[in-house]
Specification:
Largest sheet: 8 strands, parallel
Order of helices and strands: EHEHEHEHEHEHEHEHHH
Number of domains: 1
CATH topology: TIM Barrel
Shape: globular
Distance between the termini: 14 Å
Number of helices: 10
Strand content: 15-25%
CATH architecture: Alpha-Beta Barrel
Helix content: 40-55%
Number of strands: 8
Strand order of the largest sheet: 1-2-3-4-5-6-7-8
CATH superfamily: Metal-dependent hydrolases
């Protein structure tokens, strides 16, 4: 069994193919796909995908790239949506949330402040409802960690991790797993591959971030969750273990990070 902990299966790039993509992933032994929302406008889309496809689950949150257009009513809508979502076994986390200090339009002082506000408020929601978070961490590791230390949500996943050794250890100490995906498959990604090889296996989960972050063998084509076993095979090679060991360990780690997914896996 493989688990894709981060896949935007509702993205426009998939068009009407989402069901076929999920089916091909299931045939490739990808038993679960976590589909995070990016704003209140796609809450219904990710929920409908998860309830209509046998191997999909979902998270609800407001992505930092969507913060410029978001307002207080969006945070209120997110908070109001959680009680009903908790009745749905396919709902597993708050996400995708976080900070993006890479895109120029998000790096002004005002926009950094707005991002931080939305991030902090969504951490409060996660803490209030005892839900893990799926974190967008793009050139923002230290600030992300500052808020995690202060607000202490119940763990989650640092998606597409690419930080320092010290930052990796701090995430782990705070109860987070680190997401590895297509970037790890490029030989030039020296730091990511070193982390993949050397960090405790218990701290790692796998993801595609499809349709983005495609692995080396299809880049720059559209990524897909059916590529996850190939990404896992690269991790196995880097660590000198079998792909079966990686599948088992990273799936266990994903279930530890997302307890509602663990319960769903046991009852499905």
């Amino acid at each position: 069994m493989w688990i894709d902990t981060h896949c935007h299966l509702d993205a426009a790039e998939f068009g009407t193919e989402s069901a076929d993509v999920a089916r091909r992933a299931l045939e490739a032994q990808v038993s679960w796909i976590v589909v995070p929302a990016i704003d209140t406008g796609n809450f219904d889309a990710v929920r409908m995908l998860a309830t209509s496809l046998p191997n999909c689950t979902y998270a609800l949150g407001i992505h930092p790239v969507c913060v410029p257009q978001a307002g207080p009513t969006d945070l209120a809508r997110l908070r109001a949506a959680i009680p009903a979502a908790l009745e749905d076994p396919r709902f597993v986390a708050i996400g995708e949330i976080g900070l993006d200090f890479f895109l120029p339009q998000l790096c002004t002082a005002a926009m950094r402040e707005k991002q931080a506000h939305f991030y902090a408020e969504q951490l409060k929601i996660a803490r209030d409802f005892d839900l893990p978070v799926l974190l967008h961490v793009r050139r923002s590791q230290d600030t992300i960690l500052k808020y995690l230390r202060r607000m202490r949500p119940p763990g989650g996943i640092a998606h597409a991790f690419n930080g320092s050794d010290q930052q990796a250890q701090t995430f782990i100490d705070l109860g987070f797993r680190l997401g590895l995906g297509g970037a790890m498959t490029f030989t030039r990604a020296l730091q990511i591959r070193r982390h993949a090889a050397m960090l405790p296996l218990s701290s790692l989960v796998l993801e595609t971030d499809a349709p983005d972050l495609s692995p080396e063998w299809i880049h720059p084509a559209r990524n897909s969750p059916e590529n996850l076993p190939g990404i896992g095979a690269v991790l196995a090679e880097l660590r000198g273990v079998t792909a079966e060991e990686i599948a088992a360990a990273t799936s266990d780690n994903a279930c530890d990070a997302l307890p509602r997914l663990a319960f769903l896996s046991k009852t499905a």
